[in-house]
Request: fold
Amino acid sequence: MKILSILSLYLLFVSKTYTQNIWDGAAAGGSWAVAANWNGDILPTTNDIVIFPTGISGTISNVNGGNNITLGGLIIQGNSNITFTNSSNKTLTVANGSGVNDFSIETGASLTLGSNVDLTLAAGTTTNHTIGNISGTLVINTGRTFDSNNGNITTTVNGTIQNEGSVAGNAARLFFSNGLISMPAPVEAFQLLPGIHLQPTE
Reply:
């Protein structure tokens, strides 16, 4: 009986809790740091799964109130077109949460890394990889970074990465299934990795 009680107490402290936090602010965007823009009027906190539902098209400013944060998931749904901005350089990190996809841009949706916001997929574990799925469009503006190059990460691109900044990832961690990456430079300027297709922008 004592052993069971101790084990239950241990699991209570070591288990992560993942709470969905859904944007319910204006469809035209708004400030991440305003509690009223989130369901339950509660700001996203560490390990939350942040969801932008269908129909959101605009800029999400002041991402996490200007602070770095590690989320359990980041999901851009349906036809939403989101741009993240901040007043100073900050990193949004997505760790291996409880969902099938920890980072997801659905078909028809887009996410732009705008002013001062970088996105990193944190290392997973051998039994629980950090999973990314880009079926829509990820836009990386000049000076911004998308880092998918940590251990035990699998990011599948069936959509498009439009890169004017920096993408970190190798063919084993950033897998272009039916997708492509576009860059504002001649294709000859880049080294092609297996499974990666480059399309220069005009």
